[in-house]
Each structure stands twice: as structure tokens, then as C-alpha cells.
Specification:
This protein is mainly beta and 353 residues long. The chain is built from two helices and 28 strands. Strand 27 and strand 28 form a beta hairpin.
Length: 353
């Protein structure tokens, strides 16, 4: 589907090399503006107001300090070899400090490169969907720095750190958290796979459902207010030596009685991950399958009767984006008789390659 869009003549667009440059479109009500180059996200955000939508093409963009409750959509967090789709990559660390409480900040289909730490200072009800994050860091010693009710859906997070308990009500759905460091804020993990930090307080005040947790062991301390349902715990405490089971290491059965399953459950010399996963052995790489062994997938079910982990639940794992993608932009060489610049934008619908 193609749409011919008329932009104001004041909008300056180079007519050569469009296909080679990343670009962003900014939608405000019925108007669309186009920005090109690796700084396009920064330019679009500068021109945006809360409630606007910024669509990013495939390619690499410099990050921007986000101060507006906008929607930023990319082409996806992974390349798709089958269709030739290239992902949208964000470079450099950035901060989220959004004071708007009437509109929601949304980030969708983005890959954050190494070093692109996202620091959350302030946001209400932000949503992060199908993004590959490096470090997500909630910081701030003042109560003015507080992110509330954030949702992460179908995301991969290399490291989640909530220091000072300034992120409250965070919920993770069908997401992978490779290093989960947290204090006692009441987070929720639903149909997730998470590697817990080596401290008992990281599970305090948490609600964990239909998920898979793994951890070397807990340091001293107690688990307070922890509630877990239909969850698998993997004891990796002896992973590097004999794989022998030792209850002094991570033992989920010591934390509750709500349909919990601990692996291994007795002395064994088997890699504990192989008891649960088909191919995953504790070291993750992008695109890796996190499929469960058949006997686990069919016998250990969540509260909704689907399998535990990222492929079950309300938001089964799917890294592809569903928002329309921009195929290309072609601009006329000069304005028309009305002083307008005609631009042809190809919008790829969800069922087009």
C-alpha cells in the first residue's frame, strides 16, 4: 500500500541516497515529517510533542534523552534472514525522564547496542515491547525520580538494576532477564526466564508466576513477601564441577508451596539446564531457542494451562513487530504549483514482505 503525502516546502529533504540512510517519520495528528541520517531520532524527538508517533526505518540511530511521552517504533530487534529485514539499532546510553502523566511512553521493536544503557529517572506507565536491551537502570536517590507501573513485554534484558527502590510496580511478561538485580520493590514476573542475582533480597516482595528462575545460590538473608506460582527453579550451584545437588544452593522449594518445581530434585551429575530446556544450557545468545523439553512443556503448566516460560501465557514469545513498516521514501526534486513538496512513502502492511 502506497500513500502520497504532501509535506510543507520548508521541509528540506535530500533527493539522493535515501535508500542508504536511516530515516525517521514523525506523525503529529494528520501531518508527517521526515528526518534522515543517524541523528534522525534526535531530530524527530526534538520536533515532537507528547502523544506523537516516531517510526524508525531499519538501520542505526543515535539515542536521545527522552523527555516526551511519545511512541517510538522500530523495524524489529533482530534481523530476519528469511525476509531480508534489517533491525533498528540504537547507539549510546540515554535517559528517560518523562513528566507527562496523560500520555504513555512506548518503545517498540528496537535493538540497543552494547553500551546503550537505558537509565529510567521518571515515567508513569511506560511500555517496552519487543526490544533487546543491554542494561536497564532505575536510578535516583530522590523521590522525584520514580518510574511507576512500567511494562516489559517480549523483551530481552541483559541486566535489570533497580537501586533505591525507585521503580515501583514493574511487570515483566514473556521476557528474558539475564541478570536480575533488584531490591525490595514489588515487581511481577509472568511467563519469564530470569537469572536472579546472588542475594536473597532480589526475590523479596515479588510475585512470580509461570516462570523459570536460575541462580547459583543465595547469600545470607531472608525472603520476605515472596510469592511464586507454577514456577521452575534451576539449581546451578554445582554447575561447573560435579553438578551434584546441594540444598544449601538455590532451592525454590524452600520459598513457598504453590506448585513449585526444583531441578535437580535429588543428587545428580547432569547439567541441570538439560533437565528443563531442549538446547539452552545457561549461556544465552540472541536468537537462541528457549524451548522446554517435551516432558516439561506438557506436564508443568501455568495457571492458564499453557506451558511455563516465554512461549506460554497471554503474550507468547514473538520478536517480530506488528506495526506497519516503512519500505522507502521518494521525494520530488521541486515543489509543485501550490508550493508543496510531494513525497511518496511506501507503507508495508503486516502481511507483506
Amino acid at each position: 500500500m502506497k500513500k502520497a503525502l504532501l509535506l510543507l516546502a520548508a521541509l528540506c529533504i535530500a533527493t539522493l541516497g535515501f535508500a542508504q540512510q536511516p530515516f525517521a517519520t514523525l506523525t503529529h495528528n494528520d501531518s508527517i515529517r521526515v528526518f534522515h541520517g543517524m541523528n534522525a531520532l534526535q531530530s524527530a524527538h526534538s520536533a515532537a510533542v507528547s502523544g506523537d508517533v516516531i517510526n524508525l526505518s531499519s538501520g542505526v540511530f543515535y539515542s536521545v534523552t527522552i523527555t516526551k511521552a511519545v511512541t517510538i517504533r522500530g523495524a524489529g530487534m533482530f534481523n530476519d534472514d528469511a525476509t531480508g529485514l534489517i533491525n533498528t539499532t540504537i547507539m549510546n546510553q540515554f535517559t528517560v525522564n518523562v513528566s507527562d502523566t496523560n500520555n504513555r511512553l512506548s518503545l517498540i521493536g528496537l535493538y540497543f547496542a552494547s553500551g546503550a544503557q537505558m537509565t529510567l529517572c521518571n515515567a508513569v506507565n511506560p511500555q517496552f515491547l519487543k526490544c533487546r536491551f543491554q542494561t536497564v537502570f532505575q536510578s535516583g536517590s530522590s523521590s522525584s525520580y520514580n518510574t511507576s507501573n512500567a511494562q516489559f513485554i517480549n523483551c530481552i534484558i541483559q541486566q535489570w538494576r533497580n537501586e533505591g527502590n525507585r521503580a515501583t510496580g514493574t511487570a515483566f511478561y514473556n521476557s528474558i532477564i539475564l541478570q536480575y538485580y533488584n531490591q525490595e520493590s514489588p515487581d511481577m514476573l509472568v511467563n519469564c526466564i530470569a537469572s536472579l542475582g546472588n542475594n536473597s533480597e532480589y526475590t523479596n516482595s515479588k510475585t512470580i508466576m509461570n516462570s523459570i528462575l536460575y541462580c547459583d545460590r543465595f547469600a545470607s538473608g531472608s525472603n520476605n513477601g515472596y510469592t511464586s506460582f507454577n514456577t521452575i527453579g534451576i539449581n546451578t550451584g554445582r554447575y561447573s564441577s560435579t553438578y551434584a545437588y546441594n540444598t544449601s544452593y538455590f532451592d525454590l522449594t524452600n520459598m513457598g508451596t504453590h506448585n513449585l518445581h526444583n531441578y535437580p530434585s535429588s543428587s545428580t551429575y547432569t547439567n541441570p539446564f538439560s533437565l528443563v530446556f531442549t538446547t539452552f544450557r545457561g549461556t544465552y545468545s540472541d536468537g537462541m531457542s528457549m524451548a522446554l523439553n517435551d516432558n516439561i512443556a506438557t506436564t508443568i503448566l501455568g495457571d492458564d494451562s499453557t506451558q511455563v516460560g516465554i512461549y506460554g501465557g497471554q503474550f507468547p514469545w514473538d520478536p517480530s513487530v506488528s506495526n506497519p513498516l516503512i519500505g522507502h521514501i521518494n521525494a520530488a526534486r521541486r515543489t509543485n504549483a501550490q508550493g508543496m513538496l510531494e513525497v511518496d512513502v511506501e507503507i508495508l502492511s503486516n502481511d507483506e514482505e
